[in-house]
């Protein structure tokens, strides 16, 4: 028998910011339907006696309390007892992350797992965008120094992003080719994404929320003065926004492709009507922020589409 349990594989709640966190927002919404929330860290996921089990705790979220969560009961849980499992830990997409997808993959036909662990593993959040490069600024993916040097000659101002980083970490804007700096970045991260800098990022980007193959909403994120990082975790400010017809068409195309590839929930970003190449499928964020500025509750949409 399947219980009304939602398991969340994520970073410990003490590390989350309830004012912005999407995992807390999704959990809080499903609690209203009398689901219990079981929370565990991916390092506590195991296969024991052919069963996928997690050491964690049942938890209750409450936005009205100063401490927004209460741990109710610590226990080991066989995850096939759950109706849903949400994969919500932050990248980096390292071997621990990959291993957790292999473990969860063994029960994906018995429990609804979001996003599908096989799909998460197969979709590189940056390399997936290769098929959409006609909608992007000039971009290359490489660790070849000569290719990067040639790219700088053509584009002058360049954004460098590690392929497997997250939340604006280790993103750099260079106005000239700096060999030693780039060599250190490649030594640390291997492949990097080099992209022509778009100055209009100062006016903000657009984060588009895709749920079950549909465009469900968007926000604009404006970097702090003097910054080129639009991540909320880097101090950006969220504003209401509307998508242009061009942005809608691209978003519909990507949403359709992601649904075909078994991604239920994703976020994509535009800068100056150009796709920036980040296809967020591991732990998309921004739903709580959208609600705060517009009262549009996509947590309801998220669960409704799942028929929870």
Question: What secondary-structure arrangement, pairings included, does this model have?
Answer:
Layout: E1 5-9, H1 22-31, E2 36-48, E3 51-61, E4 69-78, E5 84-87, H2 95-105, E6 112-114, H3 117-122, E7 139-142, H4 145-155, E8 158-162, E9 172-174, H5 179-189, E10 192-196, E11 205-211, E12 214-222, E13 237-239, H6 245-260, E14 265-271, E15 274-280, H7 287-294, H8 298-305
Parallel strand pairs: 1-2, 1-5, 5-6
Antiparallel strand pairs: 2-3, 3-4, 7-10, 8-9, 8-10, 11-12, 11-14, 12-13, 14-15
Helix pairs in contact: 1-8
Provide structural commentary.
This protein has helices spanning 22-31, 95-105, 117-122, 145-155, 179-189, 245-260, 287-294, 298-305, and strands at 5-9, 36-48, 51-61, 69-78, 84-87, 112-114, 139-142, 158-162, 172-174, 192-196, 205-211, 214-222, 237-239, 265-271, 274-280. The model has no long low-confidence stretch (mean pLDDT 95). Strand 11 (205-211) and strand 12 (214-222) form a beta hairpin. The chain has 8 helices and 15 strands. The two termini are 16 Å apart. The protein has 3 domains: 5-115, Rossmann fold; 138-197, ATP-grasp fold, A domain (Dna Ligase, domain 1, 2-Layer Sandwich); 200-305, ATP-grasp fold, B domain (D-amino Acid Aminotransferase, Chain A, domain 1). The strands form 3 sheets. A 6-stranded mixed β-sheet has the order 4-3-2-1-5-6. Strands 13-12-11-14-15 form a 5-stranded antiparallel β-sheet. Strands 7-10-8-9 form a 4-stranded antiparallel β-sheet. The chain has 308 residues and is an alpha+beta fold. The relative contact order is 0.15.
